[in-house]
Amino acid sequence: MINTSSFFSFVFNMIKGFIDKKTVAKMKVLGDKYMDSLLELIDMENIPTFLGGYCTCSHIEGGCLFADIGPWNPKGGFIR
């Protein structure tokens, strides 16, 4: 989770003891200094502009927020 508030981070740290350790190990909560962590996994061209990257998904109606691109939907956009 990126761009989380300090309140969310505080609450998450309190409740993560109740979540299975395997699940917690898969989660990362980042505040507003998330870009370096994203760039370890994702190229800048694939990070949406509203998160500081270069991607606009201009070929999809609604842009990156509605892209839904993945193995289930290789062209992106709404599945009809």
Query: Proportion of β residues?
Result: under 5%
Helix tally equals: 3
Q: Can you tell me the number of structural domains? A: 2
Largest sheet, described in full? none
Mean of all residue-level pLDDT scores: 88
E-strand count = 0
Note the quaternary state here. single chain
List the secondary-structure elements in sequence, H or E.
HHH
Derived from helix and strand composition plus strand pairing, the structural class reads: mainly alpha
Helicity range: 25-40%
- Cα(first) to Cα(last) distance is 29 Å
Summarize the structure in words.
The chain is mainly α and 80 residues long. 25% of the residues lie in helices and 0% in strands. The two termini are 29 Å apart. The mean pLDDT is 88. The chain folds into two domains: 1-41, no CATH class; 42-80, no CATH class.
List key phrases describing it:
80 residues; mainly alpha
Q: What is the structure about, briefly put?
A:
The chain is mainly alpha-helical and 80 residues long.
Chain-wise SSE layout:
Layout: H1 6-15, H2 21-25, H3 35-39
